[in-house]
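SEQUENCE-TO-STRUCTURE ENTRY
===========================

Backbone structure tokens: a row of integers, each naming the local backbone shape at its residue.

Task: work out the structure tokens from the sequence, keeping to the layout shown below.
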Amino acid sequence: MSEESMVERVARAICAATGTIWGGPRGDDDPDFLLVKLMYLNQARAAIEAMREPTDAMVDAAYDWLSDTAPLTGRRTTDIAGTFKFMIDAALKGPA
């Protein structure tokens, strides 16, 4: 089983947020679901593309995260996953 791509993960989240079940009666490759699946995948790509340029709040959150972790390591950390999560959390909060 291959790892789910971020595009598919976001597509599934959009699908769930609309109250729709991912996949048709015969699963993800159900021919009746393929067009719906394509729609959700396109929406996911558009959503991810919109997040490509971080907001000022996201950049500030990244700097805050890096500054907060520096005393723990004695240097600026390169915890990209942690930084990314703080940036996304800032995006979800919206404008300050």
Notes: The chain is about 65% helix and 0% strand. The helical segments are 6-17, 31-50, 56-73, 80-93.
